[in-house]
Specification:
412 residues, binds ligand LLP
Length: 412
């Protein structure tokens, strides 16, 4: 693990987080290039020599300095918006390395994707297929497409991040898929090349994944028999991580759930992991600005960072370990670690044992590399935090802290 105590000091791959904090100020995100490499390699090697491409899901964290590390490892990307496509290009990816997913792609975004010739557009509906066909015809080209299949399977994750049930807005109901492929194949502007499925995120039960992949593989075989030869099956993302230290299935279990069905089809496999690659690589570091101690043992540690930088606890009741950067000796006390925002939901840790602390101490929120920085906001006119990458014992700022001038530049 990259974040570890050296004596009582929390470090990232040997670099003291206090040292970074004194230099860049708080709050900041810090990422370990080493963990990124290890997590990427764990997923990649789990799929062995079966033909596969890892399309890292940019939505989890798309800071260019971080994404470039993944590119250097051979990663491709999954983009969920026109903005993510442009970021991918600036990070050095070429269109054949980009898949474009998303439930509400605009015509502008689709035109750009078709003109670039991305590897695949994952289509969400018959209406979107018709729009893409029109755009491609107008450009005198054929767009490489796949249908995102909704297999109506519960991924057994948090309802906010479950996407594969019939009740969800995502994908095309599986029973409509085969006919839609026939329609698409008959369209001059469309070239169906794959099938896509993404069930949900933070999945720690892999049986739903196994079932979904089996169902979608069978569909792909039917489509091929219909005379539409497909190249690939895109199994989406969703592999969960452990936020609290409890054992969860890892990349090899994930591969064991997916590979048997896909192998029989011979289709190339695409994967879109986000969290499994970046969550553990990142921490959010803030500083204690106040302590509130009440009778009956209630203690609040108030940080200069909270839901504006890390939404996950407020939005999904998500658990993140919150630890002091300089560990003080003494008894732990049940504590709420809270942020500065004007909402009670701005609580990073509730009712947890926390050691003695003082105003000015640095505090780290662990496993915050995925869906942390990307979901941060200017709520309460707070500036987006700085981001730091630690690599080979050195660190550098990969995104400077936003300034008031940056924010106000957009206003009259
Ligand atoms: N592919 C598609 C089509 C997706 O919608 C997602 C995530 C992924 C891949 C990557 O999933 P992952 O491997 O990271 O689970 N903000 C939430 C997570 C939202 C996930 C949305 N889609 C959170 O903080 O838990």
């Amino acid at each position: 693990v990259s974040f570890h105590y050296q004596d009582a000091h929390l470090a990232c791959d040997g670099v003291s987080l206090s040292e970074i904090g004194e230099r860049v100020g708080t709050p900041f995100y810090v990422y370990s290039a080493r963990t990124l490499r290890e997590s990427y390699a764990a997923v990649d090697t789990a799929f062995g020599d079966y033909p596969h491409d890892i399309h890292y899901a940019l939505k989890a964290n798309s800071t260019i300095g971080l994404v470039r590390v993944l590119r250097s490892l051979g990663s491709h990307v999954d983009a969920n918006s026109g903005g993510e496509i442009e970021v991918a290009l600036r990070a050095g990816f070429i269109p054949p390395q980009i898949v474009f997913t998303g439930v509400g792609k605009t015509n502008d975004e689709l035109e750009r994707a078709v003109e670039l010739g991305v590897k695949t557009i994952n289509i969400e509906s018959a209406g979107e297929a018709a729009r893409i066909a029109g755009i491609a015809a107008a450009q005198g080209t054929r767009a490489r497409v796949a249908l995102r299949i909704n297999p109506d399977i519960d991924p057994k994750s948090h309802p906010h991040i479950s996407t594969g049930q019939k009740s969800a807005k995502f994908g095309v109901p599986i029973e409509h898929a085969r006919a839609l492929y026939r329609d698409m194949a008959a369209c001059a502007g469309l070239e169906p090349v794959g099938v896509h499925v993404h069930l949900g995120s933070q999945m720690v039960d892999l049986e739903p994944v196994r079932r979904a992949v089996a169902i979608v593989t069978a569909l792909a075989e039917d489509i091929t028999r219909d005379g539409i030869p497909l190249e690939h099956l895109d199994a989406g993302g969703g592999l969960g991580v452990s936020y609290d230290g409890r054992a969860v299935p890892g990349p090899s279990d994930y591969a064991a759930a997916i590979l048997p069905a896909v192998r029989s089809s011979g289709l190339r496999l695409l994967l879109e992991p986000g969290r499994a690659i970046v969550a553990a690589a990142g921490a959010l570091v803030g500083r204690i600005v106040d302590l509130k101690q009440y009778e009956g043992g209630r203690r609040f540690v108030v940080l200069d960072t909270g839901m504006s930088e890390l939404m996950r606890p407020a939005l999904y009741d998500a658990f993140h370990r919150v630890v002091p950067v300089e560990r003080r000796a003494g008894d732990e006390q049940i504590t709420d670690v809270v942020g500065p925002i004007c909402e009670t939901s701005d609580t990073l840790a509730k009712g947890r044992p926390f050691p003695p602390a003082a105003v000015g101490d640095f505090v780290a929120v662990l496993d915050a590399g995925a869906y942390g920085s990307v979901m941060s906001s200017n709520y309460n006119r707070r500036m987006l935090p700085a981001e730091v990458l630690v690599d080979e014992g050195r660190w550098r700022v990969i995104r400077r802290r936003q300034s008031l001038e940056d924010v106000l530049a957009l206003e009259e």
